[in-house]
Protein 1
Amino acid sequence: MITCKGRSEILRMERATRVVQEVLAECVAACQPGVSTEEIDRIAAEGIRSRGAKAAFPGYRGYPKTICVSVNEEVVHGIPSARRKLREGDIVGLDLGAIVDGYYGDAARTALVGAVPEKVRTLVVETRRALSAGVEAVRVGGRVGDIGAAVEAVAREHGFGVVREFVGHGIGTALHEEPQVPNYGPAGKGEPIREGMTLAIEPMFNLGTAKVRVGPDGWTVTTLDGRPSAHWEHTVVATASGPVVLGFGRYTADGVVPGAPDESEYPDAAAPLAGGAVA
């Protein structure tokens, strides 16, 4: 069942997603050569706890950690490990969720560890642009397929593979609600978009084939050809004024600012580290 949220509910989701965005900024800053993915998980857990929120992922369907850390050919759901150390040239997908007053926020970013090949940087930048395109397609009276079509159009410009086995989703009092939000079209199909619908939009683009597989741990999804993958995600609410991305102070009791945030609106890490990781 699809639920449309009222203002008080969305304000709680705004707070939850703000926690996610602030903690993700700290995790992005920590993406340096030699840092283990376990250390990033520790930063995420402490960051959520220190802000008075609850981590959404631990125990969810048996997931054992606070954050998903997916490196290079890992698409999503990478499990942090003390043995996995980041290296110069890696790209790192960071996916995080938090709960405030029973409402969820969910977001993801892909960080660069130092200098990466230009084609990989383009993959990361264009996946983020596809996220913005998907956000802009969230229009009351439109269809969920419009979102996927907008995302897919960006991938087609560059010949990127669009992951089809894993999709975006509704979100609210549960991490995953209806409807599913694919990263592909066609436009004009799928559930009607109604005011108050809250959606997690999350394009996943691969540098090569769109095909993926789940690893032996039952969680980590990798590209079938071993080439890099990028992942970005926002939690978005459909309003009469247009789509509003939560977690950036764009949804308040006094009004809303529609559209996708630009780079300057992302929170800075509380204690940024030197190096090449970027949002």
Protein 2
Amino acid sequence: MRRNITGWYSERLYRDMPLVAYGHWGTPILALPTAAADFLEYERFGLIDSVRPWLEHGKAKMYSVNSVNKQALLNDRASAQEKCDWLNRYDGYITEEVLPLIRQDCGGGDVKPMIFGISLGAYLAANLFFRHPERFSGAILLSGSYDIRNFLHGYNGMDVYFNNPVDFLPHLHSPELQRGDKRIIIFTGQGPHEDAARSRQLSDILHSKGIPHWLDVWGHDVGHDWPWWRKCVPYYFETLFGK
């Protein structure tokens, strides 16, 4: 299986931003890491190995990048406005730097990857997907929270609104999402450290907007941890791409 690390200095983020690609062919999937982790997190925790058959046989191709969570939502020294500024810069990094690289790596043309994230990465993935549905073919959102106001010390300006899916989605008019040709998977467990209400909240908003999606709620033994994510991701890959 191809494993290729590249990267560049992002003027938007004032730092080197590495990226790893797994596989040669297939549907491209852009993966955003959890919490304060890095671009190799999914490899270290065995998630890449869990979907290796699809990557090796040309059914899917994954790209994994760093986040700015340390500078943004997890930065206790930053103001709410600074946190939102980092989120906006990250939005530009993904849409104007990473997506062009993926298109080029996939042979050019109008390539639209799926976007994937777990935990805080699921928030980032949802925020990007619903802000730019025309740039992605779908989203796989695992164990996420889609309301960031608890990170922002009560601040509630317009820059929060446009980075908070539970705020802007109820007012979003998107025939592109309502057509139903984008695959949206929302996963949650109901066990330790999971909060299924967060995923149900996002699902309820999408239902109210007529946006097709799959809310997949697993059992009360299913916790917020890697063994369950390594189990559910191959299940979704088989659903999306076949055996």
